[in-house]
Here is the input.
Amino acid sequence: MDKSKKAIEVFNKHAKFYGEKFRDVSLYAEGFDIFCGAIKKKNAEILELACGPGNITNYLLNKRPDLKILATDLAPNMIDLAKLDNPTAEFQLMDAKDILKLNKKYDGIMCGFCLPYLDKEEVNKLFQDSYSILNPGGIFYLSTMEDDYSKSGIQIGSKGDEIFMHFYKGEFLSQALKENNFKILDLQRMDSLMGNGSKVVDLVIIAEK
Here is the structure.
C-alpha cells in the first residue's frame, strides 16, 4: 500500500476520533484571521484542501459567513463529518494533487496540514498549481509541522496506526513559494503536540499571488 492510501485508510477509519481531537483550532486563529482579512472581496471563492472533519471550514465560515467554500478531502468519512457542521459549504472528494482538474479560479486557498502527506516534488507542484488557479491578489494559507526533511518517515498516530509524514523547514517552503511567484505576507511558529504526544513546532505561512 502506498503512503497516500495508508493515510486515507487511517483517517477514514478514525474520522470521528480526529474530528473531536482537533475540534479546537484556536491555536491557529491568528493565521486564519489574517487569511480572512487579506481577502477583501465579498462572497469570495475559497478552495480548502485536506479539510478533514471540517474544523477549519467551520472557523472560516463563522468569521466570514459570506465565503463560498469548496472543501476537499480524500477520506469519505471525513467529508461526511464536515458536511454535518458546515451546511453552507460545498464538499468534494478530491486529491490535493488534482486541483487543476477543477478548471476554476479562486480568491483564496486554505491548505491546513496537507503538506505532511506530500513529498518535496508534490509540494512544489502544489505551489505551482495553486498559483495558477488563484485570481490576482489571491491568498494562499498553509500549515505544517516544521523539522528537517531528513526526519520524514513513519510516525505512530494517536490510535497506534503507522502513517508516513514529511517535515519541512520554513526557509525551504518560503523559498519554494517565492520561486513560484508568491509574496510572503506572514510566517508564524507555535509549539504543539503530534497525535502521539511528542512535541513539534507547527508552521503557518500566508502568501499572496
